[in-house]
Design a protein that fits this description.
Number of domains: 1
Number of strands: 11
CATH superfamily: Immunoglobulins
Mean pLDDT: 82
CATH topology: Immunoglobulin-like
Distance between the termini: 27 Å
Number of helices: 1
Oligomer: single chain
Helix content: 10-25%
CATH class: Mainly Beta
Largest sheet: 6 strands, mixed
Low-confidence stretches: 1-21, 23-32
Structural class: mainly beta
CATH architecture: Sandwich
Strand content: 35-45%
Order of helices and strands: HEEEEEEEEEEE
Radius of gyration: 15 Å
Length: 155
């Protein structure tokens, strides 16, 4: 039982750290020690392939309807993103982190077009770690909408 509670507390701490750990999010106060952060950022590449929507996927809205979806596939450490409302002027982005030494952060962003796009973090993402991530919509440099967080194991 203690292990379960400790695991949940660790996940909550990681989720709290995720908010301030990525670019475009609230920063730490001036009195905090500066942490060196590693951020792997990729523009998603369009693909003719697709992935099925399942429990390893997440969605984000635009206030009226679904704006996009994303899926994490541990085999190959790939993030799939899809803009489901390409005419709304918002881009879809996934941000997340793993619980590795140095807490590397990951960012996968797409364009304003529909269709599946893929980011490949196979060479950067540590094996057998927890990947905590969320999907968001952006207009320029401003975040508009955010999904709930997901936690999945890397390969």
């Amino acid at each position: 039982m203690r292990r379960l509670i400790a695991g949940a507390a660790g996940a909550a701490l990681a989720a709290t750290a995720l908010v301030g750990a990525l670019p475009g999010s609230a920063s730490a106060s001036a009195g905090d020690v500066a942490l060196k952060k590693t951020i792997y950022s990729q523009k998603a590449k369009p693909t003719r392939k697709s992935t099925k929507f399942d429990a390893k996927c997440n969605t984000v809205g635009n206030g009226r309807k679904s704006a996009g979806m994303a899926c994490f596939r541990a085999k190959g450490d790939r993030i799939w993103i899809k803009d489901t409302a390409p005419g709304d002027g918002l881009r879809i982005e996934v941000r997340g982190m793993t619980n590795s030494n140095g807490n590397p952060n990951y960012r996968c962003y797409g364009n304003h077009k529909g269709g599946w796009q893929v980011c490949n973090f196979d060479r950067q993402m540590a094996e057998k770690r927890i990947f905590l991530w969320y999907v968001s919509t952006w207009k320029g440099s401003k975040i508009k909408w955010t999904s709930d967080e997901k936690m999945l194991r890397t390969s």
